[in-house]
Amino acid sequence: MKRVTTSPHVHSSMDIRKSMLYVFIALLPSAIWGVVVFGLMALVTLALSIASAVLTEYLLSKVTKEEVTINDMSAAVTGLLIGMNMPPHVPFYIPVLASVFAIIVVKWSFGGLGCNWMNPALGGRVFVFFSFTSAMSAFSLPRFAADAASSATPLSSVKTLLSNGEVFTSASEMSGYSVMDAFIGNIPGCIGEVSALLLIAGGLFLIYTKVMTWHIPVSYIGSFAFLTWVFSGLRCGQGFFIPMNDLLMALFTGGLMLGAIFMATDWVTTPTTPVGMIVFGIGCGFFTFLIRYFGSLPEGVSLAIILMNVATPTIERYIKPKKFGYVKPVKAPKEAKK
After folding, report:
1. What is the mean pLDDT of the chain?
2. CA 258 → CA 170, 184, 286, distances in Å?
3. Cα separation of 82 and 258, whole Å?
4. CA distance 241 to 237
5. Can you give the pTM of this predicted structure?
């Protein structure tokens, strides 16, 4: 049976399965690097997350007698993202619970793929973070780290000093890790978030394959960088602007790159117009900065994206593309009206 729709029609060889496959491929280098620096426990965590998400979606399809959708790879991508957002030695039941929650509560309870109001992987991560905060905050030293380096993430170290009212001159010196360590991925953190280099490379691949556009990642990272550069120096005793090294540390640590490139760009939960995407990205950058530097948590990427997911319908309402073939009406001269 043929489906008839109104024009204009856009023809493309890109379908859901192919786009999800590209996202999976783009995530793999960062995930593999996480296994290299954190060991086999990280691999088991990733495998459990993916398997739990796929199996949960399969069982739901059978129970509800709906079409089995695991072949579109959306569940596999959700599971991989959840695994990459886990600490390397997290108890195995936590990624399983996160994946099950993401598929059942965040995705399927709202109608399945295309109907969820927030990214399922983000929902699963936030659920287990607030349910098992201690386990989700316990990180391990990377395999190639110096003996003197702390297992606390650079963001956690900075947050501890700020909460104690201490003043320091360099975030990189204080944490024991250099900007290059953070860029390559030789720092403590979640399995798939430590290598900014590989995450950026994955993002460029997705832009090249036209799975995503530059609007959200650039506006997200750019707005966060600007706010950090201008305002955070006041809290660190470094004057009105912080040094470039500290700015790069803020960009390359935590979940900023993973969130901005792979989760804030979710097709379903973000605006569809270029201007709307930029507004969305700026909002994510603002809330991430606000939570990181003035909140009680060392990280704010997940919550920032979810907050802006809530705002997506409002952005879509007020920022609309012009109708195809629309011509602005010409006002009649005043003399003609008389």
Report:
1. 83
2. 24, 14, 17
3. 11
4. 10
5. 0.85
